[in-house]
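Hi V.,

Quick status before I head out on leave. The structure for the redesign project is tokenized and pasted below; the design run finished overnight.
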């Protein structure tokens, strides 16, 4: 996502041209717009650039930034977002898929280090909370305007449910209803299934194929390590696999479908 980062850096430089109390006000609006995960992030940055250009010109002419948003800046920002295209499916997949893959492979590779270890559903909670937290923060970001409208309160409640309530519910169900654990022998065919799943996703999302091919290779590597007895070699290979997982966790492809913004 090099192009997206460049656009954000350019907009951040524009933002610095706004001074005084107007800077904090505008920064809040920019953060709010960027937090709309359902919108195409490239379109959002284009809209922010246009907005900042207008506000800088107005400030130069002696006008206050707040006059552009009236008494309800959240609604004004939402009106900007309404005009923007939704984020493409491949963007969501590339953003959240690594958070699903990493804890699975991490748990399995730890079994290579110690065969007495079993993979539990609760091992996936940290990354689950991160993923839900991203959506939760997105819903509750309107609180930053310090204005408790009904819309803001509703969004904050949704945010709390996603960040706190849903993980607790899933934890209760997994511990009391589906108390599952997996041995190393059980996980070998599961790893094979994930190899083919990622290959299928690579075929479906060809512009992000490298991401899924990378996860497919790591799943194949993980399956192979499960056949090995515990030794210095198997432990070393497990840490190599974890290192590869970390690299893919932070890898974000530059999908061309994001750039089709007029």
């Amino acid at each position: 996502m090099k192009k997206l980062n460049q656009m954000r850096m350019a907009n951040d430089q524009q933002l610095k041209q706004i001074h005084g109390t107007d800077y904090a006000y505008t920064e809040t609006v920019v953060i709010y717009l960027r937090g709309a995960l359902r919108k195409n992030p490239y379109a959002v940055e284009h809209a922010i650039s246009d907005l900042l250009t207008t506000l800088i010109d107005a400030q130069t002419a002696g006008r206050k930034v707040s006059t552009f948003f009236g008494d309800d800046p959240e609604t004004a920002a939402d009106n900007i977002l309404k005009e923007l295209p939704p984020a493409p499916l491949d963007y969501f997949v590339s953003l959240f898929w690594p958070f699903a893959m990493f804890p699975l492979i991490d748990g399995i590779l730890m079994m290579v280090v110690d065969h007495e270890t079993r993979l539990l559903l609760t091992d996936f909670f940290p990354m689950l909370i991160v993923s839900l937290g991203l959506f939760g923060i997105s819903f509750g970001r309107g609180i930053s305007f310090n204005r408790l409208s009904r819309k803001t309160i509703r969004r904050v409640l949704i945010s709390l449910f996603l960040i706190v309530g849903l993980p607790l519910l899933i934890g209760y169900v997994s511990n009391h209803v589906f108390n599952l654990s997996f041995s190393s022998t059980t996980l070998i065919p599961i790893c094979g299934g994930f190899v083919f799943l990622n290959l299928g996703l690579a075929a479906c999302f060809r512009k992000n194929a490298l991401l899924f091919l990378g996860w497919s290779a790591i799943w194949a590597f993980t399956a192979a390590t499960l056949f090995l007895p515990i030794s210095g070699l198997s432990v070393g290979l497990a840490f190599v696999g974890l290192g590869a997982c970390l690299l893919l966790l932070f890898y974000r492809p530059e999908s061309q479908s994001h750039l089709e913004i007029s």
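Above is the designed sequence. The radius of gyration is 23 Å.

G. will cover questions while I'm gone.

Best,
W.
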